[in-house]
């Protein structure tokens, strides 16, 4: 209801067609979507009780951009990132990924999330699986799931075709892969990715035997195995030994150079400066300042940002 | 003393009852725990998923009522109620009846054990699964559950041991269990010492065997994970 009122208020003075106002739901974009946007956030607010963590943020992230989010603890950086793939449900506002509203319960969030990789501070590798299984679990499961659905669809079409006239028979979905090839392909892809980060020999060990840096690189590769359009990094190096930070940052940098769109919450200012095409400075649930790394680090405008930079640099 | 026991145990055929009782006790304990694990897991999953939507909420409420009913009344009372009220008009084997009651009873305890096990798995595991595009159910099944089970094995072993000892009250509804068998031997000649000490020894040995088995299972499950 609230949103409908807002829309009415925003068009005050103009005669409003009642029917159109009624048809607009909470999940329609408040403003027209940017056609170039990969992720578009509109009026995003997140509250825990009375505590406002994100305060009415609107932002557009375009394909190919590398966005670094910096800011003091408790400024809402991580919450913002987690709202981008609705791991946290926003209190109000919408998040659009390729034009689909992720907050809308009618949008299948699992399908959308396949295209958004996420890397956590604590790695979150599945402890009960080997490294290889960690990487192949999701691709294999999803491919098998789709295969089952296609087969059921084909079975039903075949059954219906029995009763259809000859010229009205529906075509079947062509099925190219069986379960075996799906598994083999996924394993092959995983091994290729592991070889790339130089951990092919660790394919059959459990994550608990690996070092932090190795685990984080595998977590990145696990997200990559889904061929994501965008990668979200939630402080990927904060839980690592100083020694291990370099290898992880290097991998992320490689990805950036390949043109992957990414959003990185980080405390590594040097890294943000080097890799990012745009830097957000967040404080108190708002994006206080944003711009190219040169602008933000070289000529900060905001007082809070100046203070922050003087402490961390 | 020994000759009286010998006479009752061997000559008068008391050992047949003891063997039958041993079998029944083991069946009640193990089948009861199996039923308990199935029911308990279901209830636990419903409780964990309880906040997701209204249907899950209703089911989780049913689970809560079930748990509080079966944890809040003594097992003997439950046996009596099932025997004399619920199954009063049904021809049913008393062993089956005991298995059902013990299964339902342990289900209430196992549900809490399982819930604890699921909660003990780091939330990050669920989040990682969800961000990869797996559904809630798949994440639960493939990621959270195997880890929860691993955490829960020692406590489930405890439950098996407690259940085995609790079966001694099954004789209230005329089930021939171990306790009942030895009670018959003892009360035949009012000679109590040896039969009841033997009874205690029987339970002790069963439970020691269970303890070893649980250790083995636990070690086996931990093997995959160097800690």
Mass-distribution shape of chain A: globular
Which ranges of chain A are low-confidence, i.e. pLDDT below 50, for 5 or more consecutive residues? none
- Strands ordered across the widest β-sheet of chain A: 6-7-8-3-9-10
- Count of DSSP strands of chain B: 0
β-sheet strand percentage of chain B: under 5%
- If you compute it from the alpha carbons, what radius of gyration of chain A comes out, rounded to the nearest whole angstrom? 23 Å
CATH class of chain B: Mainly Alpha
Question: Averaged pLDDT of chain A, please?
Answer: 88
Overall tally of structural domains of chain B: 1
Classify the secondary structure makeup of chain A into a structural class: alpha/beta
What would you give as the CATH superfamily of chain B? MetI-like
Strand content of chain A: 15-25%
| Largest sheet, strands/sense/barrel of chain B | none
Helical stretch tally of chain B: 9
Written description of the protein model:
- The complex is a heterodimer of chains A (313) and B (227).
- Chain A is of the alpha/beta class.
- In chain A, 41% of the residues lie in helices and 20% in strands.
- In chain A, the strands form two sheets. A six-stranded mixed β-sheet of chain A has the order 6-7-8-3-9-10, sandwiched between helices.
- In chain A, helix 5 packs parallel to helix 7 and helix 7 runs parallel beside helix 8 (242-257).
- Chain A is globular and about 75 Å long.
- Chain B is elongated, with a radius of gyration of 21 Å.
- Chain B has a single domain, classed as MetI-like fold.
- With 227 residues, chain B is an all-alpha fold.
- The mean pLDDT of chain B is 89.
- Chains A and B meet through helix 4, strand 6, helix 5 and helix 7 of A and helix 6 and helix 7 of B.
């Amino acid at each position: 209801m609230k949103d409908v009122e807002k829309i009415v208020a925003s068009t005050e003075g103009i005669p409003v067609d009642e029917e159109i106002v009624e048809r607009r739901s909470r999940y329609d974009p408040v403003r027209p979507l940017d056609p170039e946007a990969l992720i578009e956030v509109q009026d995003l607010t997140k509250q825990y009780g009375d505590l406002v963590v994100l305060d009415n943020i609107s932002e557009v992230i375009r394909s190919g951009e590398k966005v670094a989010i910096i800011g003091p603890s408790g400024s809402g950086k991580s919450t913002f990132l987690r709202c981008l793939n609705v791991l946290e449900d926003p209190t109000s506002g919408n998040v659009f990924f390729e034009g689909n509203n992720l907050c809308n319960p009618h949008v299948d969030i699992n399908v959308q999330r396949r295209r958004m990789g996420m890397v956590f501070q604590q790695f979150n590798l599945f402890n009960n699986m080997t490294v290889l299984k960690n990487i192949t679990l999701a691709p294999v499961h999803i491919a098998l799931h789709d295969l089952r659905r296609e087969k059921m669809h084909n079975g039903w079409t075949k059954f219906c075709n029995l009763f259809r006239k000859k010229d009205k028979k529906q075509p079947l979905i062509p099925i190219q892969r069986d379960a075996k090839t799906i598994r083999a392909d996924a394993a092959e892809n995983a091994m290729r990715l592991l070889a790339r980060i130089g951990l092919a020999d660790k394919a059959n060990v459990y994550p608990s035997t690996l070092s932090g840096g190795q685990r984080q690189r595998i977590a990145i590769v696990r997200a990559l195995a889904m061929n994501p359009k965008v990668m979200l990094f939630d402080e990927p190096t904060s839980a690592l030994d100083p020694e291990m930070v370099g290898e992880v940052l290097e991998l992320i940098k490689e990805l950036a150079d390949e043109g992957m769109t990414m959003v990185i919450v980080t405390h590594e200012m040097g890294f943000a400066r080097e890799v990012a095409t745009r830097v957000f400075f967040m404080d108190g649930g708002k994006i206080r300042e944003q711009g190219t790394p040169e602008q933000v680090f070289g000529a900060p405008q905001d007082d809070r940002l100046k203070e922050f930079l003087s402490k961390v640099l | 003393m020994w000759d009286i026991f010998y006479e009752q145990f061997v000559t008068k055929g008391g050992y047949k009852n003891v063997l039958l009782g041993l079998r029944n006790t083991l069946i009640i304990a193990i089948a009861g725990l199996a039923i308990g694990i199935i029911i308990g897991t279901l209830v636990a999953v419903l409780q964990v998923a309880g906040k997701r939507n209204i249907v899950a909420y209703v089911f989780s409420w049913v689970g809560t009522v079930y748990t509080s009913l079966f944890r809040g009344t003594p097992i003997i009372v439950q046996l009596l109620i099932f025997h004399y009220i619920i199954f009063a008009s049904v021809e049913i084997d008393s062993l089956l009846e005991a298995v059902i009651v013990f299964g339902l009873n342990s289900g209430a305890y196992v549900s809490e054990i399982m819930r604890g096990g699921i909660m003990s798995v780091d939330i990050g595991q669920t989040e990682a699964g969800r961000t990869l595009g797996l559904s809630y159910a798949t994440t639960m099944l493939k990621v959270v559950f195997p880890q929860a089970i691993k955490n829960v094995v020692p406590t489930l072993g405890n439950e098996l041991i407690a259940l085995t000892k609790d079966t001694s009250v099954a004789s209230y509804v005329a089930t021939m269990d171990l306790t009942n068998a030895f009670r018959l031997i003892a009360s035949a000649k009012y000679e109590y010492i040896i039969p009841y000490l033997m009874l205690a020894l029987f339970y002790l040995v069963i439970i020691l065997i269970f303890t070893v088995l649980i250790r083995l299972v636990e070690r086996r499950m931990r093997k995959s994970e160097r800690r």
